[in-house]
Queue: 3 jobs
Job 1
Amino acid sequence: MSSSSLEPVFELHRGGKMAVASTVPLTSREDLSLAYTPGVARVCEAIAAEPALAADYTWIGHTVAVVTDGSAVLGLGNIGARAAMPVMEGKAVLFKQFGGVDAVPICLDTQDVDEIVSVVTALAPSFGGINLEDISAPRCFEIERRLDEALPIPVFHDDQHGTAIVVLAALRNAATLLDRKLADLRVVVSGAGAAGVAVTKMLVAGGVDGAEVVVVDSRGIIHEGRDDLTPVKAELAATTNAAGRTGGIAEALAGADVLVGVSGGQISEEAVAGMAPGGIVFALANPTPEVHPDVAARHAALVATGRSDFPNQINNVLAFPGIFRGALEARASRITDAMKVAAADAVAGVVADALHPDAFVPSALDPRVAPAVAAAVAAAAQADHA
């Protein structure tokens, strides 16, 4: 911490990256009587009689909780609740900057599924949505499912769905650049954690043929002949890899058109070289991609990473601010697959008229993205009656 190279980082974080600000004046007795007692009682009574009014007369209509247990933070792993707070604050300020959504970081000092579900359920009346963040697989699947079933507000695990939405958007534009159809691509997903599972499902929902998707975990290709699969991976085995391929990542990539890396493990240049000519590589592990972009570019036509210092960054900030903005505006009770696909289409559409091999994904700072995503998600929510 004494290193001079770290000082700007610590200075920026001193005192935290966010604060609470009042939106109303408090300069007179009349102001106090309206904002607090006795005037506030009338608003409380109205909400008690009609709970939906809370979205109009409190911050609930534009506020989400960013919830973590600190078990899978960025590339840092299980660092616990307190150490996760700087990341959750960062997420909250991204919500505000890019989506106009207020967000409150909540770091829970428990990694028990039942306790997390109970605490978040109890906190939910204070928020219009729940963004789950940096919770390790496979617990994250159950936590999201149970909260989604229990709560009348949107629940969204960004590590799963945010990544998957931006991957689908990027693949749509990459396929357009190469004059290919999604349904004709053979795709390999390296990684079967939260992101890998969601990417696989999102790509299939978006038009990729599930039979032509091969998912690889740390023990090799996922197929129905394996006896070591979790229920989530068993579901993947039943819906992908129709050819029954076996082996490791090299066997999976032989002749493949697309590699989506969300594992953090390294992939050899020899394995990438075995892909079909004119392929697509998304190496998304941070800070070290599964295959270096320069190496990938020797064998693939189009390359994207999760890093900001290379072209075509697959960044979740392209998705989650607009998704929650749209869901909140539509008063949606959940986030459906159709809303996620609509978000991906909107992200892709922002740069659809100016596609280039080094720019088929919008910049994370592009101000057009969040409004486009919000509008698309809100429309899809209304169509879905979400």
Job 2
Amino acid sequence: MLAVQLKQEGLCTVKDLAHQHGVSERTIARDLVLMREQGMPIDADRGRGGGVRLDRNWGVGRMNLSYAEAVDLLISVEVSEQMNSPMFLAGLGSVRRQLVASFSPEKRHKVNRLKSRILIGVTASTYVQTTVTAPPKRVVQALHQAFIDQEILAIRYKNEAGVTSERQIEPHYLLLKYPVWYVIAFDHLRDAARTFRCDRILTAELTGTHFRLSPKEAFQKSLDGNDLVV
């Protein structure tokens, strides 16, 4: 985060950086030394009004992403491509190929499995779009992890009528009917496949219990629009 800030904001004093990050000036100075040792071109302007900065051209053409970040970015690219938006997407194919090339064969297989579990449907109706809200961040994080790790999720869910229920679900697939995300899941409460609107999930907690992925055919009724929990 410090490197990103130095690149975006230009000159920053060590004192200001320490205050912004809630650490001592000595800690910032030590971090700057480590960054220089890692090859980052950090310049220092001495005197009144001086500070430190990172060359704005550094890092162009390179990204240091964690595996999870790279997976998220690749899946976002895939979703954008499948939506066939004509604006600003001409280079997505190249971005996707470069990301895929950075993965080991094992990780590439894992990513392909994840991509196959994300489905793109028709755009949501005007009525649905007017009712959608952003899910709580903690819900998104728990759902994200449960989906990737194939872990049963304990949720509190409110349907369109305002009725709240406690459920344990297996998030097998995600469905985007722009801009609304749905979870195609096996619902332990109903002992059947159900579809849940992500923005109607009030709370979500990981259970630590994993499930075996089922084929799309097992959820065909939900995918066809039946048993939709709105």
Job 3
Amino acid sequence: MAPALTKFAPAERADKSTLESQAKMLLDIELLDKLYGAVNEIVLILNRQRQIVFCNTQFAALLGHKSNHELIGLRPGEALGCIHSCEAGGCGTSEFCSTCGAVRALLSAQSGRPDIKECRILRGRHCDAMDLLVRATPIEVKGEPFTVFAVVDISHEKRRSALERFFFHDLMNTAVAIRMLSETLGSAKLGKISEVSSSICQGVQQLVEEIASQRDLIQAENNELPVRQVELTSDAVLTQVLDTYDSFARMRRCELETDPKTRNTVFRGDPLIISRVVGNMIKNALEACREGQKVLVGSQGDDEWVTFWVHNPGFMPREVQLQLFKRSFTTKGAGRGLGTYSMKLLTERYLKGEIGFTSTEAEGTTFKIRLRTSGAPAE
């Protein structure tokens, strides 16, 4: 039999009889189940093929399994439902797995070096996000190598850190800019008062938009974000988001324009959620631009689909591309990195659409969302 394809870690697996023998050997160790069952951490023991041969009750409970036996033979990402675990030869073998902290920690432990890393995964079609801290430690049982794989869910800690960073960084920057403008208002010459007042209004609008964006993300993750279907035109959507981000573009000293290839499309959808997604694409594109560069925003459609896109001339390295939609991944500093994740969450969970991107040195970076013109189908 030809070996399974892999783009990172080995894909080979142990056969059923070997798995059963390994699982029985570990269960026969006195107190092992009680010992790992008494800790708060999730604990797995993996064989050389990174397959589960033991797990404590906390892990089985997390996944809703009645029996640990159902998990024997799976790899961690497969058990957790990672969206990349069904690619290539399974968990650890796709190109995306090359950036996964869990797989890297496992490979390190299998080479004899205990390791601890953070792991960010998206689960299932609803894009449920998990942030994990994983510790991989090599052990030997009856002359056979295994890895103890301990997991702590740090999702809430990451959420809090991101929210705190948002309020202390993004909102503070906008608030300081508004204060500086308001301080100049009193000393401004008569002809400049209208200009300064307009800048203050734009700053306040940006502040409200930032707060609303975070509110919507929290509601979306809690499955509390309402969706309403109304008739829209793509031109109206673009006009609204371009107006919202015009001041942000001028602050970045970048140009924000409608792509000449744009064609108006009538469709049904939720105007708030669609504007939020396209707005996030625009904001990310502007943050990736250097002074004087241009961001193009456009849309086209037919009787079945409408597509919105945002293009900027920048290029993302492959390692960045592989991690873009993960919840806590960012190139902007610790505690940020919610923009592309929220775009995927809102597009796929609430709009029932598709999101993707291309990024090359020659053509720059383009993000696209694709939505049905008839609106999101009912669950």
